[in-house]
Give the backbone structure.
Amino acid sequence: MRRELLPLLATIEAFADLGEEDLSALVEACQELHVRPGEVLVSEGVEDDRLFILLRGRVEVYRRRGRGILAELGPGSLIGLLASLLGGARTSTVRATERSQLAVLRGSALELLSLSHAPIGLAVQTAMVGQLLDDVLGVQRRLGDLGA
Amino acid sequence: MFSTTTQILVTQLGIAFPRLSRSLDPSDVELLGKVGDLRLLERGQDLVPPGGRLPGLTLVLAGRLVPSAAPASPPEHRWVVGTGDVLGMETVLGRRPRHISLRALEWSEVRVIDEASWALLRERHPNIAVGFLRELALDLAAELSAVDSTLERGGR
């Protein structure tokens, strides 16, 4: 069943450079998850080290207090990279807005996988730096707009 | 046994990036200390002239630098880059670094890792590259948390 995830994972930009052996190892470590609209994947403030790879569907990211919907994510998005790699509580809540299919990887499994398959470690760490850099530049722009 | 020059490189890296140095084996720190080019800058010397781009991932090992094209204001009021800062992270993402101009505010030492050197490090020493990326991520996460808090306070 999980072998069906392989061609879907191969289309994810973050994993574009992975060879078939690495992709297969990634698939073996993942669990498949299907959610309906309204279902919450991760909850703000909760310790949770799972990485979600959105294969099909859409989700929205929001915080209890603050600025409404922070982001809407589609296929190819890696959700929860920060908590899965660096630990700590979730900083926002993620909820499905459509029927969605995801691959789920526990942080501990990801760590082991990164040790045994260096390209996977490089892929996820690079993706995390990319996400964080985009986030930092985004909030810096907003700060600039506020004149802070 | 490290040579004196290597020992200096390792020590410098350890002072500027203590967390990274602790997380890697000494031999890996030694190797990382040799990746890319070391640039020594006199006070007032440009690392990147106005209109230019950073030549790659730039690790500030010592000293302070400021944007040379910043508005006329006292140097202490400008954005200052100092020991332990990393610029040009776009390099590790395969993106072109942003336009920036940087001038040394005092005697400074930086290590520049261009795209080719980074690619080589990834290929030959992926564990070092992963450790380095993790370090970048931790710095970015801390920066994000700080600016996000400011935005939360100022945005409401």
Notes: The two ends of chain B are 57 Å apart (CA to CA).
